[in-house]
Amino acid sequence: AQSVSQHNHHVILSEAASLELGCNYSYGGTVNLFWYVQYPGQHLQLLLKYFSGDPLVKGIKGFEAEFIKSKFSFNLRKPSVQWSDTAEYFCAVIPKAAAGNKLTFGGGTRVLVKP
Amino acid sequence: DSGVTQTPKHLITATGQRVTLRCSPRSGDLSVYWYQQSLDQGLQFLIQYYNGEERAKGNILERFSAQQFPDLHSELNLSSLELGDSALYFCASSVEGGGTDTQYFGPGTRLTVL
Predict the structure, then answer these.
(1) pLDDT in tens, chain A (115 residues)
(2) Residue A102, pLDDT score
(3) Does the beta-carbon distance from A103 to B45 stay under 8 Å?
(4) What residues contact residue B23 under an 8 Å CB cut-off, 6+ apart?
(5) Partner A, chain B 2-41, Cβ-Cβ below 8 Å
(6) How far are the Cα atoms of A50, A69, A77, A87 from residue A9, in angstroms, in the given order?
(7) What is the pLDDT of residue B111?
């Protein structure tokens, strides 16, 4: 079975700092990759997704992620964070060969941006 | 607002009881998903329905069951509740239910078992 690891559980940084969140997955086949964000008191929202093609994917709110197949990684980045980026971020995968649309999530990374 | 609605928002009950969580998907979405979010297990997929039929199953306990009705809303039934079932239960929906579909999540139902 596939698994997803997010090594940073908590990240604290100041506004305008750059953010990079790590995500590694364990699965022998090809996968579809996602980053979701959960702002305080809100539902999960899709930030970006990767299915194929250019491994550098741009999402909403200035976020981007890079798929590195050889490292089984899909790290999320933002060059300059704002206080409003305070949230919990989840990486998720779906094996392309799987039936259905069963998202496997990482443990999440809580990001606190200090004003 | 994702367009996915869940009721109730909060539910407090006792061990051994049974509860039903309800989810209405976005207009036009045929697939519904249930996830459980707890402190120790994180976000876990429970089950997926597509147009009334079960499509995929995850770590759903035998005490839990779900269904999707002809009007496409879904219910998750949790019975013989235990303290460890306390969690946030999310419903999501998507257009078709394939691996490239974007899932849109509801606000969740927070279940507290005392």
Answers:
(1) 779 999 889 999 999 999 999 999 998 788 899 999 999 988 899 999 999 999 999 999 999 999 999 999 999 999 999 999 999 999 999 988 776 778 899 999 999 999 8
(2) 85
(3) yes
(4) B4, B5, B6, B32, B34, B73, B74, B75, B76, B91, B93, B106
(5) 2, 4, 31, 33, 35
(6) 23, 23, 16, 12
(7) 97
Contacts of A108 in chain B (CB under 8 A): 42-43
CB contacts of A100 in chain B (<8 Å) are 48, 50, 55-56, 97-99
First-to-last C-alpha distance (Å) of chain A: 41
**What are the structure tokens assigned to A26, written together?**
């364990």
Residue B113 backbone phi and psi in degrees, to 5: -110, 120
B49 interfaces chain A, CB cutoff of 8 Å: no
The amino acid occupying position A72 is F
